[in-house]
Amino acid sequence: MATFMVLQHRSGPRWNASLPMEQQSEWPAHAAFMDGLVDDGFVTLGGPLADEHRVVLVVHAESEDAVRATLAADPWLGSHLVITAIEPWTIRLDGRTVAS
Q: Which ranges carry the YCII-related domain (predicted)?
């Protein structure tokens, strides 16, 4: 079984609540970094929750240390996003693999 980690982020000190995500400072660098993680197969799913101050990521990683090491290069880490939780997640049901 694949090992996944579920991360929760919240808005950091440089997040401007009056602006949409795409107008936040350093958005192009953050978006390019995250797109690269998707292309590399590290990020499986990700996005903001309804309040748009919390974000969830599902990543393919073996440990919390591996997650933190990979995300350390994110230009938003610590400024626009702060990690609040990283937990291992074992997938037991996966509808993505069901043939249509």
A: 18-89
- Cα torsion at 59, 88, 10, 83 (round to 10°)? -90
- Which DSSP string do the residues of 15-51 spell out, in sequence order? --TTS-GGGSTTHHHHHHHHHHHHHTT-EEEEEE-TT
Q: Please indicate, yes or no, whether the overall pTM of this predicted structure exceeds 0.70.
A: yes
Q: Which residue type does 34 have?
A: M
What digits encode the pLDDT tens for the residues 63-95? 999 999 999 999 999 999 999 999 999 888 888
Residue 99 lies in a domain: no
54: helix, coil or strand?
A: strand
- Neighbouring CB atoms inside 10 A of 2's CB total 9
CATH code of 45's domain: 3.30.70.1060
Q: Choose among 77, 9, 88, 73: nearest CA to 40.
A: 73
Identify the domain containing residue 66 by its residue range. 3-92
